[in-house]
Amino acid sequence: MNIPQVSVPRVVIIGGGFAGINLAKALGNKPVQVVLIDKRNYHTFQPLLYQVSSAGLEPDSIAYPLRKIIKRYKNMYFRMTKVRSIDADANELHTDIGVISFDYLVIATGTKTNYFGNKAIETYSMPMKKVPQALNIRSLILQNFEQAAITEDIATRKALLNFVIVGGGPTGVELAGAIAELKNHILPKDYRDLIASDMQIYLLEGSPRVLPSMSEEASKKAARFLTKLGVLVHCNTFVKDYDGKKVTTNLSLELESETLIWAAGVTGDTVKGLKADALLERANRYKVNTYNQVEGYSNIFALGDIALMATEDYPNGHPQVAQPAIQQGQLLGKNILKLIAGKPLKEFKYVDKGSMATVGRNKAVVDLKHFKFGGFFAWFVWMFVHLMALVGFRNRVVVFFNWCYNYINFDKAARLIIRPFNKLKK
Amino acid sequence: MNIPQVSVPRVVIIGGGFAGINLAKALGNKPVQVVLIDKRNYHTFQPLLYQVSSAGLEPDSIAYPLRKIIKRYKNMYFRMTKVRSIDADANELHTDIGVISFDYLVIATGTKTNYFGNKAIETYSMPMKKVPQALNIRSLILQNFEQAAITEDIATRKALLNFVIVGGGPTGVELAGAIAELKNHILPKDYRDLIASDMQIYLLEGSPRVLPSMSEEASKKAARFLTKLGVLVHCNTFVKDYDGKKVTTNLSLELESETLIWAAGVTGDTVKGLKADALLERANRYKVNTYNQVEGYSNIFALGDIALMATEDYPNGHPQVAQPAIQQGQLLGKNILKLIAGKPLKEFKYVDKGSMATVGRNKAVVDLKHFKFGGFFAWFVWMFVHLMALVGFRNRVVVFFNWCYNYINFDKAARLIIRPFNKLKK
């Protein structure tokens, strides 16, 4: 494995998401050896992934090389590989590149798309959890536009220009808004051979309102913003099936569409090998105590989306968003050092900094603890917070410039079909 | 096909490279209908492709949506499709999306990689003519680094870190320099588990000097710059074979390498259907007269790399670089309008603006007609000229910022393996 054996304990972190990199930073140049493992060589800033899908940003704006994060710390190693299983008794991890031993193991693998067992939807729909998936959506949208421009059959053209987004959480809402902007600002200029009104964006949400995790006020405003942009919002609507051509729902609503974007749910991206008890099957999340220790283990931890820490305020676990992951990562760094030093650990207490979602230019909603607002100012706050949260000065500048450019020019500049997406080959 | 039939003549342009877009612009809002056809939906700024390969730039910096260029002109249509053949008698083009009729046809398809019939090299080497190919090289370089970091066997590690670039023209020289910068500046920081001296970059050139199309002075300077960066330059060296592991040459030189980048030659990307006479087989370029009319045709033209206009100064045709393509495109736009108006055409006269190549930071060579220079000032001129030549204000700013950032930080920021490259699946 080529990682030197040293006298200090080795902490192995699986996953370079928000939890993983914040934990790694907290252990930087401390008396431990850190091995960060990820399938990819970069950290993904998930909250802006939808802007890659909608041709607003290129991947390098929201992805950040993991080695660039850890190079500052002499005690850190990175290995790009897939973890196959954990051998908890032997304190070993089995990976595609061999066995890696650990003293402390931290599972920060996050979530993956949940199709709720529907194979047809898994086959034909477009997920948006990873950068290549976001690029596939970008390619498909633009391919559909090109194909629609040459199609004389009206029904076929409409099916190419019908975009159905399933899931009214922040991802679905933000993506629907961004695709609506493509319809409103790009289509009329770039595709004079198409009629913008032939294009429809549907947002289907199973619960009674969009952004169900936010306040009712935010939901109402977001729905109004979406409608203003021309998005057709359908609440209380479940997708029952999709064969690549037709979307059927629990209601009479049926949609002919070449594109179904699936943002309806996630499930834990678990690793094999831990005791069955450790996992809450329903949610596919590891049960952890307030120190993020996985139930039944003293040296194995889980963080962020994959961890379920049932507390009084959050009996079903914390929301699967960036903030709990970041905060848990930071605290666990300190706690691991305390554990090694034999000092008492500090309990995790989630500080809810509020939540927000953007719908389009000048349109966002923000829920703070004592203050809820929407519109231009919310949109401004949303931008500022996301810019500051991006990893690295360069990415901030590139995103900021792109946003300014896109805003002034009503443009989305990355309208490139670099790798055409082939639905049949999926 | 959905393109309206109008009373003015239709000019169909195949290819949105330098020649195609300059011709299109010259015909913008003129009394012709223009149909631009390309397999891709973007223009590629080829001279900077090597910076995508070496993680310095993302594709959106050097690729530009073709629809964004033509949207300014009301008489223009774009179709993303592959041309299968020309039916010159019927004035029709057969494409993947059906038949497109033309009054005037302009072939501006450029060139593709030439493997000189060697199937093994075609199978195992990495070409760099297109954006996806450049991204494949980027992925492979970074994958090799990751794999080398976990390999204990020294020979295997060295083969992973040996990069062999074949072809000492501007592409090969610039790419070799950029990869050397990865070795000199990125490897020691990002990959502390690797020893930079295990990495070698070989540049193999068949002729007696690198940059054979430039002055001897430029060749000498470039070779010196390359050597300074640690590139091992081998002139008079032809690659005979490559099985994915070992490179054999005409000399005793044999190299164990996982990566062979093939920049050794191009050949015309011709279209089926024209008379055999029209093509000069050796070069795979269409013989054209001084008005770019293809031999034997009055309404079919060829431009740029694919055209061979034998003149007194250039008996073997103009160099296959951007300038002749741009100048021919601009002139042909005027000539087509003259042809329609029954006015006499203007002969093409190439204005050689000089040539240049960059090797690395502060290192470039420039050949002007009466003045040749190299070093920092040449590098500055190279950057300025390339920035200004980029299409679109946005791309200029993004590239400029990235260059400044990379220069100050000795960094290349797009070190992302977005789509892992699988050599076996190629």
UniProtKB/TrEMBL annotation, chains A, B:
Residues 353-407 form the External alternative NADH-ubiquinone oxidoreductase-like C-terminal domain. Residues 10-329 form the FAD/NAD(P)-binding domain. Pfam families: NDH2_C, Pyr_redox_2. It catalyses: a quinone + NADH + H(+) = a quinol + NAD(+). Gene3D superfamilies: 3.50.50.100. The keyword Ligase does not apply. It is an enzyme of class 1 (oxidoreductase). Belongs to the NADH dehydrogenase family. GO terms for molecular function: oxidoreductase activity. The chain crosses the membrane at residues 373-393. InterPro entries: FAD/NAD-bd_sf, FAD/NAD-binding_dom, NDH-2, NDH2-like_C. Keywords: FAD, Flavoprotein, Membrane, NAD, Oxidoreductase, Transit peptide, Transmembrane, Transmembrane helix. It comes from Mariniflexile aquimaris. This is NADH:ubiquinone reductase (non-electrogenic). The keyword Phosphoprotein does not apply. Its EC number is 1.6.5.9.
